[in-house]
Structures are given as C-alpha cells and as structure tokens.
Amino acid sequence: MIVKNLLVFACFFHSIALLSQSYAPAASQTGTTAIASNSSVFIDWASNVEVERGFVNIADPSQEDQGSVYASYGDPSNAIGMVTNSAVSLGDGGEAILTFDTPIANGSGFDFAVFENSFSETFLELAFVEVSSDGVNYFRFPSHSETQTQTQVGGFGNLDATYLYNLAGKYAAFFGTPFDLDDLATNPLLDKNNITHVKLIDVVGSIDPIYATYDSQGNMINDPFPTPFYSSGFDLDGIGVINQQSLIVGEEEKHRISIYPNPANNFIKVESEVEINTVEIYSTLGKLVKTYENLSQYPTLDISNLPKGMYMLKVNSAKKNSLFKLIKQ
C-alpha cells in the first residue's frame, strides 16, 4: 500500500510538472515561436536607442568589472538596425528605450521581435518588454515564469524556454522573441497602431526578495544570477518590426490634410478640409517638443526655434489623427 501511494504521488507530481511546461520551446524545436533574424517577415529595425546601464551586481553595488560598477559591454548603437550578434549589455535592472523611423502597428499575429545574443538555448538572460505610443506612458506585456524559485539559478545556470512567456531573451542569438500587441489590454493612453517606443528592462533574476523582480502573476523570475561581469544582464542585439504603420496616408486623407514646405526652415503650413484641434511635434525619440492649439483651418506654424533634424508631426483633427515626417533644415 505504501509503495502504491508513493507511485500515485510520483505520478501526480510528474503530471503537475508536465502541466507547468506551458509555453513554446527553444528555437531548434518543433512548436517554437522563435523568428530567425534573416526572416522575410521583418520589414524594419529600430533606428534610435537610449540606454541606462545597471550594476554588474545589484547585490553588491561596489563590485567592479573592467573598471566600472556598471555594465559596460558593447555600444548602445549595437542595438540599432539588423542584428549582428554585437549587443549592448544592460546590467542588473538596466533599461533601453528604442524608437523607429516608422511606428509599429498592431497587425495580424506578432508585431515585433526582440533579439538577445545568448550563445545557447539554455543560458537565457531575460528582460521585460514595454511599449508606448507617446514616449511617456508605457505598458508592460503580461509575462509569466514557471521556473522554480526554491534554488537560485547560478550565474552560468540554465533555463527551459517552455517555462517562459512574453519575456525577451527566451531564445538564443539570431532568434527573436516575438510580441503581439493584442496581448496588451485596451487603454486610452496607448495607441496600439502607433507604437513609437519599445522599452527593455533587465530582469534581475535573484530569488532574494530584496532584489527580485516579478512576472505579471506575482512570481519571482529566476534567471542566471549573479553575472558580475561587464556583460551583466540582458544583452540587447536589436528589435525587428513585423507590422508597421503606414505613414503614406490614404487617398481620401491626402485630400483632407497636407503640410508644406517639407523640408522647412522657419514656418510650415497645414491645410485641412476638417477642423484641426491641435498639432504636436515630437522628436524621433518620442519626446513632445512643441504643441499648437486654437488653430485656424489653414494655420501657419512657427518652427524657427526647433533644432535642425527629423521630427514627427501629429495633426489631431475631429475625425482622425494623422502622422507625418517633418524635416527641419
């Protein structure tokens, strides 16, 4: 009877373990969601990046590697354009914000993919992914980690991709972890068809509550920790765009709104067949730099105090918000 009960319990816990392997496997296995970097589904890549490095070891902020207490491997520019396996390390809890010449849109299936530079399918350093359509309000993809939290995964430890969901770094180098904007709840502060910013936040994989980070279900996320080297934390190699907003407005819209001259020096003219509420100008990093209100139907806008460069001009009308590229000479 004791043996029989032990067998029952063993089968029960084995079933639980199998049930907990809920998600897609590594890139080399059947059923994976990994997307190769040379896939034709990618139509664009990130064009700008800002990085805020984290510590090489958040549990010991005085620890240095290569002369710095912060991660220092790679240049931020390594995250721009197509992936090359030359990444930038974020460090423990470090962040990167990437922007795009043309915003990401919510299309059919996955909309973009994030690439890390892991040398294997089991040494996985993870990151949260957030998106924004205004550069101010960010929304995090719901994530889930089923990795056990009783024993710390060591600095050179291994993870199983089938335990991971909506966490960047799930796949090895040259294989992107894809994200679907439909996974995000509807929110008036997020325009899923106009994603201008993607933020990566390194997962601190410690299971010490002092330093731990948590998935959307409140579970600690256990990943290799500590990694007290200048390449500490998530190593960002790039973001590939699958679905993109068209900045070429439709024929009907062309007849309703136009801006000129473009490129421009000191002034631009906006012509619209519908009432304009406001016009906003954003930097390529999504920062709102100028707002025009109380406009006539054909306003002339003074841009003389803007530095030379490329901007995104957003015309907010009663019927539709339209986005244009603007070049200030």
Automatic annotation (TrEMBL):
Organism: Mesonia algae
Residue ranges occupied by any Secretion system C-terminal sorting domain in the UniProt entry: 259-327
The keyword Signal appears for this protein: yes
Matches recorded under NCBIfam families: Por_Secre_tail
Superkingdom of origin: Bacteria
Pfam families associated with the record: Por_Secre_tail (PF18962)
Keywords: Signal
Protein name: Putative secreted protein (Por secretion system target)
Signal peptide: 1-26
Keyword Signal among UniProt keywords: yes
